[in-house]
Automatic annotation (TrEMBL):
Its EC number is 2.7.9.1. GO terms for molecular function: pyruvate, phosphate dikinase activity. Residues 417-499 form the PEP-utilising enzyme mobile domain. This is Pyruvate, phosphate dikinase. It comes from Streptomyces caeni. It catalyses: pyruvate + phosphate + ATP = phosphoenolpyruvate + AMP + diphosphate + H(+). Belongs to the PEP-utilizing enzyme family. InterPro entries: ATP_grasp_subdomain_1, PEP-util_enz_mobile_dom, PEP_util_AS, PEP_util_C, Phosphohistidine_dom_sf, PPDK_AMP/ATP-bd, Pyruvate_phosphate_dikinase, Pyrv/PenolPyrv_kinase-like_dom. Keywords: ATP-binding, Kinase, Magnesium, Metal-binding, Nucleotide-binding, Pyruvate, Transferase. Its cofactor is Mg(2+).
Length: 889
């Protein structure tokens, strides 16, 4: 195997091997863009190193060969005393992991070559600045020295000189600082800063490999569900210098606004600076547009390159560049992160520009982003006290108590508080706190700062760079320009879509996207409408592409109507248990307590018209669309009063010598019906088989309701679904009775009802014997909640809170199997049962109800295994429609 690729050898499709940064550096090189030459060490080399603890034997020689070629091409040698070649050693995994991995710049500088660099550049200050940066970065990331020690020394030097920014330190100051830094390294790392350039490079490469398994990197991967075994590539890139004076600088840019999608000039630029300076907020950057005045030639070239990149990647790109004495260099590009709203807008903009087609547009957005757009926002009518305004970095409306450090954020959120994490700027140490917070507010940094990038990735509300707000983390307070002070624990509200920060809690209102789905808003001209327009078009693309139909889980006419507005093509699950609650509880109690046949029949007779009315309303709401009604499923004790409460009532009545015969009978019934393990007890079809007349009454109510709708010239399409079936015999018995009742109703009303009867597949045995069950079922609906419980042997209510975090942390699964279907286990049962069912009955209708029906990943799986529809809660319907479209394109 080949472990090292020159930038001229790779391309953008080799991200697995070269990492994102390396693949794109190669792509830009081959596009003829100005990229400083270099090479990439593959993720394969990293994996060998991580597995065995040693670098692969061939790696050293390959690196030597590529370094030699690089030196040849540049006409100077790494660290050469009189004319040194300097390089950066940069990590770059397949997925960008902002701030997680470590990059070391200026490798090759030593006590000797720093002199050479000074002469070569004709700038002593620059050479010593570069050297102190090397020792600082190398000390921190390679030798593990506490970074603050260097920062403090730098601050002390500035203070001693009574200056505020680092550019005001001269060569002599920086030279002294280098001596200080070397001392820090010696004391803290117990070794001298290495003077041998190759040793510097090799140690840095190893450090990049090691950083893959750093705690923060691991945490980020868990959060983002990035596999732990990918490894990182390492890029060795010849240095270009933005710190060579005012005609040099470094910047970041987006080819369009990552928050709105609008085309324009977006980015930040910092003169006389190197590397991270621009995002670290150590000096104030200028907006990219100002580069036009500073260096028109480089600005024009950059605009040209940005256009080339957009047309080439056919997407928004983000870019890192450096200008060295008027010469522009490209140091990184990648398809840029963006807000959910921008994703929809950009996708449709690119379709309009003819760069991508509809199918591709669907790949540019996700159901998760759509879900994010359906979040509520702040009420614009509300009376608010604005504290200030920062940069809208990641949208959403977040309200919480102000906290000023990560530790407090985590602690308070664990105890159920909603918090807003306020920092001057964030760094990787704040990750825990960012996860715990509702939103993040910083007073420094732009759209490309750590806080902004990470928050966008997490879908968390973030306002950054609110410079007018003075953040004092030591005293735990924030001071607004008007003098208003927010102390730790005070409520604040931040708007990640406008960048505004408010005192106190601001009420929230529904999102325009939801208003649109509800039919209360249509396309137009202002900002919200532009988004609505984009969503509208993308949904149309998805609806055209998808094969899966999308139904709703809805129990009443109101939910059904809402689901219909959201695009539901039927009801996949109507639970009938709610029809037994409220006022009707008493009737159910009587049914359960009935001593005689007549008593039981009487209470059923009273329930019948009530049930029928529910169904008539539902069929009317869903006229012309299928409505799957599940017969009673939960254990009966759920309809009886709580055992403790009842015992108290009985005891009280006894003490007061009041009549309490009914309570006593109820209590006995509760005891009788008590189950150790209700989830696996008397429920579902088992109820229908042991409580005479119960299912019969429900089937009759459905049939009579359908007949009534027919008589009213409606088009009812009821499907009767039997829950928790484990064997075909259960289904046959229920079915026989149901067929009889339906025939009776048809006879009595003269209507032809065509009611389909089917079953849920939610027990492993049902899935395993699906071929037999299909003989008695016209449709299957996979109940993946119960199926997951029974396949894993997990009781959902118990395990999620108790040991799932441990499982997730240990990586046993990347996501809860209740959230995303477990393809290998539960999924393979679904797949086999679908096949077996269809083998028996080719026109068997297949669907899924349960939360997985609205989960993006799972929808793709259900598409792949050939189900006919997914059913989910009304609110998730747009997400399911979109993902079904994405799955099919
Ligand atoms: P990250 O993944 O954290 O962005 P990078 O590898 O991109 O890390 O490098 C960090 C900073 O150093 C970036 O601003 C980048 O542009 C800059 N940089 C990296 N390599 C070079 C180089 N060869 N010359 C000049 N600047 C560089
Ligand atoms: Mg970078
Ligand atoms: Mg179930």
């Amino acid at each position: 195997v080949k472990f090292v690729y020159d930038f001229t050898e790779g391309n953008k499709d080799l991200k697995d091997l070269l990492g994102g940064k390396g693949a794109n550096l190669a792509e830009m090189t081959n596009l003829g863009l100005p990229v400083p030459p270099g090479f990439t060490i593959t993720t394969e080399a990293c994996k060998v190193y991580l597995d065995s603890g040693e670098e692969p034997a061939a790696l050293r020689d390959e690196v030597s060969a590529h370094l030699a070629a690089l030196e040849e091409g540049m006409g100077k040698k790494l660290g050469q005393a009189d004319n040194p070649l300097l390089v950066s050693v940069r990590s770059g995994a397949k997925f960008s992991m902002p701030g997680m991995m470590d990059t070391v710049l200026n490798i090759g500088l030593s006590d000797k070559s720093v002199q050479g660099l000074a002469k070569q550049a004709g700038d002593e200050r620059f050479a010593w600045d570069s050297y102190r940066r090397l020792i600082q970065m190398f000390g921190k990331t390679v030798l593990g020295v506490e970074g603050d020690l260097f920062e403090d020394a730098l601050d002390a030097a500035k203070k001693a000189k009574k200056v505020t920014v680092d550019t005001e330190l001269d060569a002599a100051d920086l030279k002294k600082l280098v001596t200080k830094f070397k001392k820090i390294v010696k004391t803290e790392a117990g070794r001298d800063f290495p003077q041998d350039p190759r040793e510097q490079m090799d140690l840095a490469i190893k450090a990049v490999f090691d950083s893959w398994n750093g705690e923060r990197a691991k945490l980020y991967r868990r959060q983002e569900r990035i596999p732990h075994d990918l490894g990182t590539a390492v890029n060795v890139c010849s240095m270009v210098f933005g710190n060579l004076g005012p005609d040099s600088g470094t910047g970041v840019a987006f080819t369009r606004d990552p928050a709105s999608g609008h085309q324009g000039v977006y980015g930040d630029y910092l003169q006389n600076a190197q590397g991270e300076d621009v995002v670290a907020g150590i000096r104030n950057t200028v907006p990219l547009a100002e580069l036009e005045q500073i260096d028109k030639k480089s600005y024009d070239r950059l605009m040209q390159i940005m256009e080339t990149l957009e047309n080439h990647y056919k997407d928004l790109c983000d870019i890192e560049f450096t200008i060295e004495r008027g010469q522009l260099w490209m140091l990184q590009t990648r398809v840029g992160k963006r807000t959910a709203g921008a994703a929809f807008r950009i996708a449709t903009q690119l379709v309009d520009q003819g760069l991508i087609d509809e199918a591709e547009a669907l790949q540019r957005v996700t159901g998760a982003q759509l879900a994010q757009l359906m979040f509520p926002r702040f009420d614009e009518q509300a009376k608010v006290e604005q504290l200030g305004r920062g940069i809208a970095a990641s949208p959403g409306a977040a309200v919480g108590k102000a906290v000023f450090d990560s530790y407090t954020a985590v602690k308070w959120s664990r105890s159920g508080e909603k918090v807003i994490l306020i920092r001057r700027e964030t760094n990787p140490d704040d990750l825990d706190g960012m996860i715990a917070a509702e939103g993040i507010l910083t007073s420094r940094g732009g759209k490309t700062s750590h806080a902004a990038v990470v928050a966008r990735g997490m879908g968390k509300t973030c306002v950054c760079g609110a410079e007018e707000l003075e953040v004092d983390t030591k005293r735990r307070r924030l001071t607004a320009p008007g003098g208003v002070v927010v102390e730790e624990g005070d409520l604040i509200s931040i708007d990640g879509s406008s960048g505004k920060v408010y005192l106190d809690e601001v009420p929230v209102v529904p999102s325009p996207v939801v208003e649109y789905f509800e039919g209360r808003m249509h396309a137009g001209a202002d900002d919200a409408d532009e988004l609505v327009e984009a969503v509208h078009r993308i949904m149309a693309f998805a609806d055209r592409k998808r094969r899966l139909r999308v139904r709703a889980n809805a129990d009443n006419a109101e939910d059904a109507l809402r689901a219909r507005r959201f695009g539901a093509q039927g009801i996949g699950l109507c639970r009938t248990e709610h029809m037994f609650l409220g006022d009707r509880r008493e009737l159910v109690e009587r049914l359960i307590l009935a001593d005689t046949e007549t008593e039981r029949e009487d209470s059923l007779k009273e329930l019948l018209p009530l049930q029928k009315k529910d169904f008539v309303e539902l069929f009317e709401a869903m006229d012309g669309l299928p409505v799957t009604i599940r017969l009673l499923d939960p254990p009966l004790h759920e309809f009886l009063p709580d055992i403790t409460e009842l015992s108290v009532r009985v005891a009280l009545a006894e003490a007061r010598q009041e009549p309490h015969e009914n309570e006593l009978r109820l209590l006995q019934a509760v005891h009788r019906l008590h189950e150790q393990n209700p989830m696996l007890g008397l429920r579902g079809v088992r109820l229908g088989l042991v409580i005479p007349g119960l299912f019969t009454m429900q089937v009759r109510a459905i049939a009579e309701a359908a007949a009534e709708r027919k008589a009213a010239k409606g088009d009812p399409r009821a499907e009767i679904m039997i829950p928790l079936v484990g064997t075909v015999q259960e289904l046959e018995i229920v079915r026989e009775e149901a067929d009889r009742v339906i025939a009776e109703v048809e006879e009595a009303t003269g209507a032809r009802l065509k009611l389909a009867i089917g079953t849920m597949i939610e027990l492993p045995r049902a899935a395993l014997t699906a071929g037999q069950i299909a003989e008695a079922a016209e449709f299957f609906s996979f109940g993946t909640n119960d199926l997951t419980q029974t396949v894993w042997g997990f009781s959902r209510d118990d395990v999620e809170a108790s040991f799932f975090t441990a499982y997730l942390e240990k990586g046993i699964f990347g996501v809860s199997p209740f959230e995303t279907i477990d393809r290998d286990g539960v999924g393979s049962l679904v797949k086999a049962a679908a096949q077996a069912g269809r083998a028996t009955r080719p026109d068997l209708k297949l669907g899924v109800c349960g939360e997985h029906g609205g989960d993006p990943e799972s929808v793709h799986f259900f598409h792949e295994v050939g189900l006919d529809y997914v059913s989910c809660s009304p609110f998730r319907i747009p997400v399911a429609r979109l993902e079904a479209g994405r799955a099919a394109s």
